[in-house]
Amino acid sequence: MKKPQIFVIFLCILSLKIFSQENAPITYEGGVEGFGYVSSEELPFWTYTNRYGRLSQETNGLVYAFAKADYEITPNSSLSFFASGVARDGIDPNIQRAELYAMFKNKWINITLGSKDFTDDTNELSSIRRNILFSSNTRALPGLLIQNAAPIKIVKNLSFDAAIAHYSLNDDRFVENARVHYKNLFFNWDINSQSSLRIGLQHVAQWAGSSPLRGEQPDGFSDFVKIFFGRGGGEEASFSDQVNVLGNHMGSYSINYKRKLSNALDIDVYYQTLFEDRSGIELNNFPDGVWGLQINRNDSKLMKGVLYEYIQTVSQSGRPRAVQNDGQQSGGDNYFINGTYLSGWTYEGRTIGLPFITINSLDEDGDFIINNRTKAHHLGVLGSFWKLDYTLKLTYVENLGSYRDPITPKDTFVYSYFQAKLPTQKYGTFSLEIGADFNEDRDTFFGGGLGYRYTFH
Protein backbone atom coordinates (compact mmCIF):
# COMPACT_ATOMS: atom_id res chain seq x y z
CA MET A 1 0.00 0.00 0.00
CA LYS A 2 1.34 3.39 -0.98
CA LYS A 3 2.06 6.07 1.64
CA PRO A 4 -0.56 8.54 0.30
CA GLN A 5 -3.24 5.86 0.66
CA ILE A 6 -2.13 5.09 4.23
CA PHE A 7 -2.34 8.82 5.02
CA VAL A 8 -5.89 9.06 3.65
CA ILE A 9 -7.01 6.01 5.68
CA PHE A 10 -5.46 7.50 8.83
CA LEU A 11 -7.16 10.82 8.13
CA CYS A 12 -10.54 9.13 7.68
CA ILE A 13 -10.29 7.12 10.91
CA LEU A 14 -9.00 10.05 12.95
CA SER A 15 -11.66 12.41 11.61
CA LEU A 16 -14.49 9.96 12.29
CA LYS A 17 -13.33 9.53 15.89
CA ILE A 18 -13.15 13.27 16.39
CA PHE A 19 -16.53 13.98 14.83
CA SER A 20 -18.42 10.95 16.19
CA GLN A 21 -19.67 12.74 19.28
CA GLU A 22 -23.15 12.19 20.64
CA ASN A 23 -25.79 13.84 18.42
CA ALA A 24 -23.13 14.72 15.83
CA PRO A 25 -24.69 15.16 12.35
CA ILE A 26 -23.07 12.15 10.69
CA THR A 27 -24.74 10.00 8.03
CA TYR A 28 -23.48 6.66 6.76
CA GLU A 29 -23.94 4.72 3.57
CA GLY A 30 -22.56 1.42 2.35
CA GLY A 31 -23.12 -1.28 -0.17
CA VAL A 32 -21.91 -4.45 -1.81
CA GLU A 33 -22.05 -5.76 -5.38
CA GLY A 34 -21.45 -9.23 -6.76
CA PHE A 35 -21.17 -10.33 -10.40
CA GLY A 36 -20.60 -13.63 -12.16
CA TYR A 37 -19.66 -13.85 -15.86
CA VAL A 38 -19.41 -16.52 -18.55
CA SER A 39 -18.03 -16.10 -22.07
CA SER A 40 -17.20 -18.08 -25.18
CA GLU A 41 -13.54 -16.99 -25.14
CA GLU A 42 -13.29 -13.58 -23.50
CA LEU A 43 -15.75 -10.98 -22.29
CA PRO A 44 -17.19 -8.60 -24.92
CA PHE A 45 -15.82 -5.05 -25.12
CA TRP A 46 -18.54 -3.07 -23.34
CA THR A 47 -18.77 -5.62 -20.53
CA TYR A 48 -15.35 -4.61 -19.15
CA THR A 49 -14.68 -1.22 -20.79
CA ASN A 50 -15.41 2.02 -18.91
CA ARG A 51 -15.97 0.03 -15.72
CA TYR A 52 -13.34 1.89 -13.64
CA GLY A 53 -10.69 -0.77 -14.19
CA ARG A 54 -12.58 -3.37 -12.16
CA LEU A 55 -12.96 -5.97 -14.93
CA SER A 56 -10.83 -7.50 -17.67
CA GLN A 57 -11.56 -9.75 -20.65
CA GLU A 58 -10.74 -12.77 -18.45
CA THR A 59 -12.83 -11.89 -15.38
CA ASN A 60 -15.29 -14.58 -14.22
CA GLY A 61 -16.40 -13.10 -10.92
CA LEU A 62 -16.28 -9.84 -8.99
CA VAL A 63 -17.18 -8.53 -5.53
CA TYR A 64 -17.22 -4.78 -4.88
CA ALA A 65 -17.94 -3.06 -1.55
CA PHE A 66 -18.01 0.57 -0.42
CA ALA A 67 -18.58 2.65 2.70
CA LYS A 68 -19.22 6.39 2.99
CA ALA A 69 -19.56 8.80 5.90
CA ASP A 70 -20.71 12.44 5.66
CA TYR A 71 -20.18 14.91 8.48
CA GLU A 72 -22.02 18.24 8.44
CA ILE A 73 -19.68 20.88 9.87
CA THR A 74 -22.08 23.77 9.30
CA PRO A 75 -25.25 24.10 7.21
CA ASN A 76 -23.00 25.16 4.30
CA SER A 77 -19.95 22.91 4.73
CA SER A 78 -19.27 19.21 5.10
CA LEU A 79 -16.64 16.48 5.18
CA SER A 80 -17.04 13.19 3.35
CA PHE A 81 -15.00 10.02 3.62
CA PHE A 82 -15.27 7.24 1.07
CA ALA A 83 -13.55 3.85 0.78
CA SER A 84 -14.23 1.03 -1.66
CA GLY A 85 -12.47 -2.10 -2.78
CA VAL A 86 -12.83 -4.84 -5.34
CA ALA A 87 -11.92 -8.54 -5.48
CA ARG A 88 -12.01 -10.40 -8.79
CA ASP A 89 -10.06 -12.77 -11.01
CA GLY A 90 -8.43 -11.98 -14.35
CA ILE A 91 -6.46 -9.01 -12.99
CA ASP A 92 -3.27 -9.00 -10.93
CA PRO A 93 -3.53 -8.15 -8.07
CA ASN A 94 -6.91 -9.77 -7.48
CA ILE A 95 -7.75 -7.43 -4.58
CA GLN A 96 -7.38 -3.65 -4.93
CA ARG A 97 -8.75 -0.43 -3.60
CA ALA A 98 -11.21 1.18 -5.97
CA GLU A 99 -11.72 4.64 -4.49
CA LEU A 100 -10.27 6.03 -1.27
CA TYR A 101 -10.62 9.73 -0.50
CA ALA A 102 -11.58 12.51 1.88
CA MET A 103 -13.53 15.50 0.54
CA PHE A 104 -14.25 18.91 2.01
CA LYS A 105 -17.02 21.01 0.49
CA ASN A 106 -18.63 24.35 1.22
CA LYS A 107 -20.54 26.90 -0.86
CA TRP A 108 -17.44 27.98 -2.78
CA ILE A 109 -14.90 25.18 -2.99
CA ASN A 110 -14.59 21.42 -3.23
CA ILE A 111 -11.28 19.79 -2.19
CA THR A 112 -10.69 16.06 -2.72
CA LEU A 113 -7.64 14.24 -1.35
CA GLY A 114 -7.05 10.64 -2.40
CA SER A 115 -8.33 8.46 -5.23
CA LYS A 116 -11.76 9.44 -6.56
CA ASP A 117 -13.26 8.46 -9.91
CA PHE A 118 -13.10 11.42 -12.28
CA THR A 119 -16.44 10.66 -13.93
CA ASP A 120 -19.64 9.07 -12.61
CA ASP A 121 -22.56 7.06 -13.96
CA THR A 122 -24.65 10.03 -15.10
CA ASN A 123 -23.44 9.70 -18.71
CA GLU A 124 -23.38 5.92 -19.01
CA LEU A 125 -24.60 5.90 -22.62
CA SER A 126 -21.58 7.84 -23.89
CA SER A 127 -18.53 5.94 -25.16
CA ILE A 128 -16.33 8.40 -23.24
CA ARG A 129 -18.64 9.22 -20.29
CA ARG A 130 -18.70 12.68 -21.91
CA ASN A 131 -14.98 13.22 -21.22
CA ILE A 132 -12.48 12.32 -23.94
CA LEU A 133 -9.51 12.53 -21.53
CA PHE A 134 -11.03 10.70 -18.53
CA SER A 135 -13.51 8.09 -19.72
CA SER A 136 -13.76 5.93 -16.54
CA ASN A 137 -11.74 3.15 -18.20
CA THR A 138 -9.23 2.90 -15.32
CA ARG A 139 -9.06 2.96 -11.55
CA ALA A 140 -9.07 6.37 -9.92
CA LEU A 141 -5.70 8.14 -9.91
CA PRO A 142 -4.37 9.17 -6.47
CA GLY A 143 -3.94 12.90 -5.98
CA LEU A 144 -5.41 16.24 -5.00
CA LEU A 145 -8.28 17.95 -6.84
CA ILE A 146 -9.51 21.51 -6.13
CA GLN A 147 -12.56 22.92 -7.90
CA ASN A 148 -15.38 25.38 -7.36
CA ALA A 149 -18.46 23.87 -5.73
CA ALA A 150 -20.98 25.80 -7.83
CA PRO A 151 -20.73 27.92 -11.00
CA ILE A 152 -19.19 31.33 -10.33
CA LYS A 153 -21.34 34.10 -11.78
CA ILE A 154 -19.68 36.72 -13.98
CA VAL A 155 -22.82 38.57 -15.11
CA LYS A 156 -26.51 37.68 -14.99
CA ASN A 157 -26.52 34.78 -17.49
CA LEU A 158 -22.78 34.01 -17.65
CA SER A 159 -20.75 31.94 -15.19
CA PHE A 160 -17.64 29.75 -15.14
CA ASP A 161 -16.26 26.57 -13.55
CA ALA A 162 -12.59 25.77 -12.96
CA ALA A 163 -10.48 23.00 -11.47
CA ILE A 164 -6.83 22.16 -10.87
CA ALA A 165 -5.37 18.82 -9.83
CA HIS A 166 -2.13 16.98 -9.18
CA TYR A 167 -2.07 13.18 -9.62
CA SER A 168 0.54 10.45 -9.32
CA LEU A 169 0.97 7.57 -11.75
CA ASN A 170 2.05 4.97 -9.20
CA ASP A 171 1.57 1.90 -11.40
CA ASP A 172 4.17 -0.26 -13.15
CA ARG A 173 5.07 1.84 -16.21
CA PHE A 174 7.98 2.79 -18.48
CA VAL A 175 8.68 6.08 -16.68
CA GLU A 176 8.29 5.31 -12.99
CA ASN A 177 6.64 7.75 -10.56
CA ALA A 178 5.48 10.10 -13.31
CA ARG A 179 3.11 12.88 -12.28
CA VAL A 180 0.03 14.38 -13.88
CA HIS A 181 -0.93 18.05 -13.89
CA TYR A 182 -4.55 18.78 -14.77
CA LYS A 183 -6.68 21.90 -15.06
CA ASN A 184 -9.85 22.99 -16.77
CA LEU A 185 -11.90 26.13 -17.39
CA PHE A 186 -15.52 26.16 -18.62
CA PHE A 187 -17.86 29.07 -19.36
CA ASN A 188 -21.62 28.64 -19.01
CA TRP A 189 -24.08 30.85 -20.89
CA ASP A 190 -27.77 30.57 -20.06
CA ILE A 191 -29.06 31.90 -23.36
CA ASN A 192 -32.71 31.79 -22.23
CA SER A 193 -35.01 29.55 -20.22
CA GLN A 194 -34.94 26.90 -22.96
CA SER A 195 -31.29 26.79 -24.05
CA SER A 196 -27.74 27.00 -22.73
CA LEU A 197 -24.19 26.84 -24.05
CA ARG A 198 -21.07 25.53 -22.29
CA ILE A 199 -17.59 25.89 -23.78
CA GLY A 200 -14.25 25.10 -22.21
CA LEU A 201 -10.77 23.69 -22.19
CA GLN A 202 -9.07 20.78 -20.45
CA HIS A 203 -5.30 20.49 -20.14
CA VAL A 204 -3.28 17.46 -19.00
CA ALA A 205 0.49 17.08 -18.74
CA GLN A 206 2.61 14.08 -17.75
CA TRP A 207 5.90 15.13 -16.21
CA ALA A 208 8.72 14.19 -13.78
CA GLY A 209 9.49 10.53 -13.07
CA SER A 210 12.45 8.30 -13.86
CA SER A 211 13.02 6.96 -17.38
CA PRO A 212 15.25 3.90 -18.03
CA LEU A 213 16.42 5.60 -21.24
CA ARG A 214 16.57 9.30 -20.32
CA GLY A 215 17.08 9.21 -16.56
CA GLU A 216 15.44 11.50 -14.04
CA GLN A 217 13.05 13.98 -15.63
CA PRO A 218 12.89 17.62 -14.44
CA ASP A 219 10.66 17.86 -11.36
CA GLY A 220 11.40 21.15 -9.59
CA PHE A 221 9.05 24.05 -8.95
CA SER A 222 10.40 25.97 -11.94
CA ASP A 223 9.71 22.90 -14.05
CA PHE A 224 6.14 22.78 -12.76
CA VAL A 225 5.70 26.42 -13.85
CA LYS A 226 6.84 25.40 -17.35
CA ILE A 227 4.39 22.48 -17.28
CA PHE A 228 1.56 24.76 -16.15
CA PHE A 229 2.11 27.25 -18.98
CA GLY A 230 3.29 24.73 -21.61
CA ARG A 231 6.85 26.01 -21.98
CA GLY A 232 9.99 24.26 -23.19
CA GLY A 233 12.36 22.53 -20.81
CA GLY A 234 15.86 23.57 -19.73
CA GLU A 235 19.20 21.96 -20.45
CA GLU A 236 18.40 18.93 -18.27
CA ALA A 237 15.35 18.09 -20.41
CA SER A 238 15.44 16.01 -23.58
CA PHE A 239 16.06 17.82 -26.89
CA SER A 240 12.42 17.39 -27.98
CA ASP A 241 11.22 18.85 -24.66
CA GLN A 242 13.57 21.81 -25.12
CA VAL A 243 12.34 22.71 -28.61
CA ASN A 244 8.69 21.86 -27.95
CA VAL A 245 7.28 21.83 -24.41
CA LEU A 246 8.41 20.08 -21.26
CA GLY A 247 6.53 16.85 -20.58
CA ASN A 248 3.74 15.11 -22.47
CA HIS A 249 0.83 17.53 -22.96
CA MET A 250 -2.71 16.71 -24.03
CA GLY A 251 -5.91 18.66 -24.07
CA SER A 252 -9.41 19.07 -25.36
CA TYR A 253 -11.70 21.90 -26.42
CA SER A 254 -15.33 21.30 -25.53
CA ILE A 255 -18.60 22.81 -26.69
CA ASN A 256 -22.01 21.69 -25.44
CA TYR A 257 -25.39 23.10 -26.47
CA LYS A 258 -28.60 22.11 -24.68
CA ARG A 259 -32.12 23.04 -25.68
CA LYS A 260 -35.51 22.20 -24.21
CA LEU A 261 -37.85 21.61 -27.14
CA SER A 262 -40.92 20.96 -25.01
CA ASN A 263 -41.90 19.88 -21.53
CA ALA A 264 -41.26 16.30 -22.59
CA LEU A 265 -38.30 16.59 -24.96
CA ASP A 266 -34.80 18.11 -24.87
CA ILE A 267 -31.64 17.74 -26.94
CA ASP A 268 -27.97 17.83 -25.99
CA VAL A 269 -25.36 18.45 -28.73
CA TYR A 270 -21.63 18.36 -28.01
CA TYR A 271 -18.17 18.18 -29.55
CA GLN A 272 -14.87 17.45 -27.84
CA THR A 273 -11.55 17.83 -29.64
CA LEU A 274 -8.29 16.11 -28.85
CA PHE A 275 -4.87 17.72 -29.16
CA GLU A 276 -1.28 16.84 -28.33
CA ASP A 277 0.67 19.86 -29.58
CA ARG A 278 0.43 23.23 -31.29
CA SER A 279 -1.07 21.86 -34.51
CA GLY A 280 -3.95 20.35 -32.57
CA ILE A 281 -4.38 23.49 -30.48
CA GLU A 282 -4.73 25.40 -33.75
CA LEU A 283 -7.32 22.78 -34.90
CA ASN A 284 -5.21 21.55 -37.80
CA ASN A 285 -6.47 18.06 -36.86
CA PHE A 286 -10.15 19.00 -37.34
CA PRO A 287 -12.55 17.14 -37.29
CA ASP A 288 -10.82 14.69 -34.93
CA GLY A 289 -12.68 14.21 -31.67
CA VAL A 290 -16.09 13.09 -30.46
CA TRP A 291 -19.30 14.48 -31.94
CA GLY A 292 -22.43 13.65 -29.98
CA LEU A 293 -26.20 14.12 -29.90
CA GLN A 294 -28.45 12.96 -27.08
CA ILE A 295 -32.25 13.19 -27.07
CA ASN A 296 -34.01 12.85 -23.72
CA ARG A 297 -37.72 12.18 -23.24
CA ASN A 298 -39.71 12.19 -20.02
CA ASP A 299 -43.02 11.20 -21.62
CA SER A 300 -41.88 7.70 -22.56
CA LYS A 301 -40.64 5.00 -20.22
CA LEU A 302 -39.72 2.64 -23.02
CA MET A 303 -37.14 5.03 -24.53
CA LYS A 304 -36.03 7.72 -22.09
CA GLY A 305 -32.81 8.64 -23.84
CA VAL A 306 -31.11 8.03 -27.20
CA LEU A 307 -27.48 8.95 -27.89
CA TYR A 308 -25.39 8.92 -31.06
CA GLU A 309 -21.65 9.63 -31.19
CA TYR A 310 -19.27 9.82 -34.12
CA ILE A 311 -15.66 9.38 -33.10
CA GLN A 312 -12.58 9.84 -35.23
CA THR A 313 -8.86 10.20 -34.52
CA VAL A 314 -7.51 9.64 -38.04
CA SER A 315 -6.33 13.14 -39.02
CA GLN A 316 -3.76 13.88 -36.31
CA SER A 317 -2.83 17.02 -38.33
CA GLY A 318 -1.64 14.81 -41.19
CA ARG A 319 1.34 12.50 -41.55
CA PRO A 320 4.53 13.45 -39.67
CA ARG A 321 6.52 15.98 -41.69
CA ALA A 322 9.54 18.11 -40.96
CA VAL A 323 9.29 21.89 -40.77
CA GLN A 324 12.01 24.50 -40.49
CA ASN A 325 11.49 25.52 -36.89
CA ASP A 326 14.41 24.51 -34.65
CA GLY A 327 13.87 20.84 -35.36
CA GLN A 328 10.16 20.77 -34.57
CA GLN A 329 7.93 18.40 -36.44
CA SER A 330 4.43 19.00 -37.72
CA GLY A 331 1.65 16.44 -38.07
CA GLY A 332 1.50 12.92 -36.69
CA ASP A 333 0.07 14.08 -33.36
CA ASN A 334 0.19 10.44 -32.16
CA TYR A 335 -2.60 10.70 -29.58
CA PHE A 336 -1.97 9.43 -26.04
CA ILE A 337 1.70 8.49 -26.67
CA ASN A 338 5.01 10.30 -26.22
CA GLY A 339 8.68 9.66 -26.97
CA THR A 340 9.66 9.98 -23.30
CA TYR A 341 6.51 8.69 -21.60
CA LEU A 342 6.21 5.51 -23.68
CA SER A 343 3.42 4.01 -21.55
CA GLY A 344 1.36 6.92 -22.80
CA TRP A 345 -1.93 8.13 -21.37
CA THR A 346 -2.59 4.88 -19.52
CA TYR A 347 -2.88 3.65 -15.95
CA GLU A 348 -2.26 0.00 -15.10
CA GLY A 349 -2.13 -0.81 -18.81
CA ARG A 350 -5.52 0.74 -19.62
CA THR A 351 -6.19 3.86 -21.65
CA ILE A 352 -7.37 6.63 -19.31
CA GLY A 353 -9.24 8.53 -22.01
CA LEU A 354 -11.04 7.52 -25.21
CA PRO A 355 -11.16 3.69 -24.90
CA PHE A 356 -10.91 2.99 -28.64
CA ILE A 357 -7.29 4.17 -28.48
CA THR A 358 -5.17 1.27 -27.23
CA ILE A 359 -1.54 1.21 -26.13
CA ASN A 360 -0.40 -2.33 -25.46
CA SER A 361 2.76 -3.85 -24.01
CA LEU A 362 6.12 -4.02 -25.74
CA ASP A 363 6.48 -6.25 -28.77
CA GLU A 364 9.51 -8.36 -29.70
CA ASP A 365 11.32 -5.32 -31.12
CA GLY A 366 10.87 -3.29 -27.95
CA ASP A 367 8.19 -1.01 -29.41
CA PHE A 368 4.80 -0.30 -27.90
CA ILE A 369 1.88 -1.54 -30.00
CA ILE A 370 -0.37 1.43 -30.68
CA ASN A 371 -3.78 1.86 -32.23
CA ASN A 372 -4.67 5.56 -32.12
CA ARG A 373 -6.15 6.11 -35.57
CA THR A 374 -9.75 4.99 -35.44
CA LYS A 375 -13.28 5.77 -36.58
CA ALA A 376 -16.40 4.75 -34.69
CA HIS A 377 -20.16 5.13 -34.73
CA HIS A 378 -21.73 4.61 -31.32
CA LEU A 379 -25.41 4.28 -30.38
CA GLY A 380 -26.85 4.15 -26.86
CA VAL A 381 -30.43 3.76 -25.66
CA LEU A 382 -31.79 4.07 -22.13
CA GLY A 383 -35.28 3.16 -20.98
CA SER A 384 -37.50 0.85 -18.98
CA PHE A 385 -40.24 -1.72 -19.47
CA TRP A 386 -42.30 -3.64 -16.94
CA LYS A 387 -40.18 -3.19 -13.78
CA LEU A 388 -36.84 -3.34 -15.61
CA ASP A 389 -34.43 -0.50 -16.41
CA TYR A 390 -32.34 -1.25 -19.49
CA THR A 391 -29.24 0.08 -21.28
CA LEU A 392 -28.36 -0.78 -24.88
CA LYS A 393 -25.07 -0.02 -26.65
CA LEU A 394 -24.07 -0.73 -30.24
CA THR A 395 -20.73 0.39 -31.70
CA TYR A 396 -19.07 0.02 -35.10
CA VAL A 397 -15.30 0.61 -35.00
CA GLU A 398 -12.60 0.81 -37.68
CA ASN A 399 -9.03 0.51 -36.37
CA LEU A 400 -6.25 1.83 -38.61
CA GLY A 401 -3.29 1.41 -36.22
CA SER A 402 -0.93 4.40 -36.27
CA TYR A 403 0.90 6.39 -38.93
CA ARG A 404 4.08 4.51 -38.03
CA ASP A 405 2.50 1.04 -37.95
CA PRO A 406 -0.73 1.06 -39.95
CA ILE A 407 -3.23 -1.79 -39.87
CA THR A 408 -3.81 -2.82 -43.50
CA PRO A 409 -6.51 -3.62 -44.30
CA LYS A 410 -8.32 -1.83 -41.49
CA ASP A 411 -9.62 -3.95 -38.65
CA THR A 412 -13.38 -3.58 -38.09
CA PHE A 413 -15.47 -4.58 -35.07
CA VAL A 414 -19.08 -4.41 -33.97
CA TYR A 415 -19.54 -4.22 -30.19
CA SER A 416 -23.02 -4.93 -28.79
CA TYR A 417 -24.19 -4.79 -25.18
CA PHE A 418 -27.46 -5.05 -23.27
CA GLN A 419 -28.04 -4.62 -19.54
CA ALA A 420 -31.29 -4.93 -17.59
CA LYS A 421 -31.71 -4.02 -13.92
CA LEU A 422 -34.52 -4.94 -11.55
CA PRO A 423 -34.51 -2.56 -8.57
CA THR A 424 -36.49 -3.54 -5.47
CA GLN A 425 -37.24 -1.53 -2.35
CA LYS A 426 -36.23 -4.18 0.18
CA TYR A 427 -33.95 -6.64 -1.55
CA GLY A 428 -31.52 -4.55 -3.58
CA THR A 429 -31.01 -4.49 -7.35
CA PHE A 430 -30.65 -7.53 -9.62
CA SER A 431 -29.02 -7.19 -13.04
CA LEU A 432 -28.38 -9.11 -16.25
CA GLU A 433 -25.72 -8.30 -18.88
CA ILE A 434 -25.35 -9.76 -22.38
CA GLY A 435 -22.80 -8.78 -25.01
CA ALA A 436 -21.27 -9.90 -28.30
CA ASP A 437 -18.31 -8.66 -30.36
CA PHE A 438 -18.15 -9.37 -34.09
CA ASN A 439 -15.11 -9.35 -36.39
CA GLU A 440 -14.93 -10.95 -39.83
CA ASP A 441 -11.43 -12.36 -39.28
CA ARG A 442 -11.87 -13.64 -35.71
CA ASP A 443 -14.26 -15.71 -33.67
CA THR A 444 -17.28 -13.89 -32.29
CA PHE A 445 -17.02 -13.23 -28.55
CA PHE A 446 -20.19 -13.89 -26.59
CA GLY A 447 -20.54 -13.21 -22.89
CA GLY A 448 -22.92 -12.35 -20.14
CA GLY A 449 -23.32 -12.07 -16.43
CA LEU A 450 -25.64 -11.87 -13.47
CA GLY A 451 -25.22 -9.26 -10.75
CA TYR A 452 -26.64 -8.11 -7.45
CA ARG A 453 -26.26 -4.82 -5.55
CA TYR A 454 -27.43 -3.94 -2.06
CA THR A 455 -27.00 -0.56 -0.35
CA PHE A 456 -27.87 0.65 3.11
CA HIS A 457 -28.10 4.07 4.81
From TrEMBL:
InterPro entries for this protein: Caps_assemb_Wzi, Wzi_sf
Pfam families named among the record's database cross-references: Caps_assemb_Wzi
Gene3D superfamilies: Capsule assembly protein Wzi (2.40.160.130)
Keyword Signal: yes
Keywords in alphabetical order: Signal
The keyword Signal appears for this protein: yes
Domain of life: Bacteria
Signal peptide: 1-20
Protein name in the entry: Capsule assembly Wzi family protein
